[in-house]
Amino acid sequence: MALISKSLLITSLVLVSILAINPNSCNAFKFKSLNYSDDNGGGLQWGSASATWYGAPTGAGPDDNGGGCGFKNVNLPPFNSLISCGNAAIFRGGKGCGSCYQVKCTGHPACSGNPSTITITDECLYGVCSDAEHHFDMSGTTFGSMAIAGREDELRHAGRMAILFARVPCNYPGLTVSFHVEEGSNPMYLAILVEYADGDGDLSQVDVLEGTQGATWTPLRQSWGAIWRLDSSHPLQGPFSVRITTLTSGKTLVAQNVIPADYVPNYTYRSVVQFNS
After folding, report:
1. Which of 75, 106, 238, 243 is the one with CA 20 to 30 A from 271?
2. Do the beta carbons of residue 229 and residue 194 sit within 8 Å?
């Protein structure tokens, strides 16, 4: 019996070791490992992924310069077309919207080996996006940014490619967390897009506080992507304070009275607060 127990123990240890070192194991790189260090490059947790690109070769991906997160004009600063769709493990049902990564390639002669910093702004479904644990379907600009200068088109013609990726803090110099009130918002319905959050970039919860005396925080529910909504049983009264909580670190930030009582739908209201990245 002692020999059998010893054999079982050895077998168990071997299996644990295989799972720990086997890069093809589905247990080898779970989403919870997609954290980052704050040392601007050293000690980042690099993982393996696959990558493709879509849209115009030097464009921002989708024709409308938007995507499944709800961000607008991703071809313009601060995104500058350096964006990507993420598959399910990265997009996280929309809660991965706004998260930032560094990506680089080394396996093609046109690869520079230098990392580019990108933001998740859309979702990648089916096909090549579903047969890899982590897949980035990048804008043409992002894909080309991994190339040696002057060889961007050569790299874009390489097709699907193995890359390295690492989660990094988002950084929007000179910008504060902003709230775009979505079209269709009215006294009974409020929908907001949260933008430009430094640090984690992602969100797990959004709450609003009405401007009435004795009001308490009311949770919004995720509508889609980075857009959160409140369907109210009473006419909502501003000004509205907004509290956001990040997904990765659980950090909370409050923007006091950031949306005025006479807000205009399809308008962005900038707060005076920002996460420390």
Report:
1. 75
2. no
pLDDT of residue 39: 44
**What number of H helices and E strands is found in the chain?**
4, 15
User: Per-residue pLDDT tens for 127-158?
Assistant: 888 888 999 999 999 999 999 999 999 999 99
| pTM, entire model | 0.83
- Asked whether the beta carbons of 248 and 96 are under 8 A apart, the reply is no
**Backbone dihedral region for residue 113 (phi beyond 0: left; psi -120 to 50: alpha; all else: beta):** left
Name residues whose C-beta falls within 8 Å of residue 11's C-beta, 6 or more positions apart in sequence: none
pLDDT of residue 27: 27
Looking at residue 199, what DSSP letter applies?
A: B
Rg from Cα positions in the chain: 22
Strand ordering across the sheet containing 221-224: 221-224, 227-231, 189-195, 178-181, 267-270
What is the per-residue DSSP string for 123-178? E--SGGGTSSSSEEEEEHHHHHHTBPTT-HHHHHTT-SEEEEEEEE-B--TT---E
The conformation of residue 8, written as its DSSP 8-state character, comes to H
Check: CB of residue 219 under 8 Å from CB of residue 229. no
Alpha carbon distances (Å) from 129 to 99, 163, 213: 18, 14, 49
Where do runs of H (alpha helix) occur along the chain?
2-21, 88-91, 140-145, 152-156
* DSSP result, 121-137: EEE--SGGGTSSSSEEE
> Which parts of the chain have pLDDT scores under 50?
1-33, 38-41
Give the tokens for residue 122: 């859309």
